[in-house]
What does this fold into?
Amino acid sequence: MALCVCVRAGYNDPMEEKLVEPEKEVRVARRRSVYPPPPRPASDGAIWLVALPFVFLLGLGFGWVLWGNTAATSAPVAQVPGKVSRIQVSEDNNPAIGPADAPVTIIEFSDYQCPYCIRWEQTVYSQLLADYEGKIRFVYRDLPLTAIHPNAQSAAEAADCAGAQGAYWPFHDALFSEKYGLGAQAYDQYANDLKLDVTAFDACVADHRFKAEVDADASYAQGLGNNSTPTFYINGLLVVGAQPYSYFKQVIDQELAGAIPKN
It folds into this structure.
């Protein structure tokens, strides 16, 4: 069994969108009597029956404060099972940053239009590279979800065209910055900002020079069973979703310490 999203998540699960049906409003029609009976003193049992619903609701309120609110704010925790299996994932000459002999290699399958991928790149990626300089190697592989992200394929191809001019990672960072959005005009603006040869860049994009490369990445990811982005392999350990920095730190630190079984 692979190590994967072993997260104690609360209501703010970073990968799930939950549709909650609104509570049904129950209305109780009260019949009015023209000649109401004279009032009678309430017995102890009657008073308890009246108070019981309020006691129940009060208990629910305290339960939410003590438990539910804590669950909503608690951070995901990486829980390592006693026995794991590592998935062999190829880099396949894809863009990589960090030393080739780094003790930890992170391979990400991602989509430039995926909101979760964007959030992860903006909040976790740079901090990991800075905090684990020389200790991690980061590899980016494409998994454009074209059925729901119409610009993901062209963005991936444009990044590879920038890579042909030695600017893959600056272009990668520019795309995830969302400064100009995505699309042909945006790609030209990023290329201009990075002082690329825009004529050569445009020809590369127009010719779909790297379409086969992007398609191969996507096919490979699907062969691994990946159908969502972002998906990561940390030394072969599967982590699914835009988990926070603290989650990645736990896994990387345990891996560097040798605390996670190799097989």
The first helix runs from residue 44 to 73. The longest strand covers residues 104-110. DSSP finds eight helices and five strands in the chain. The mean pLDDT is 79.
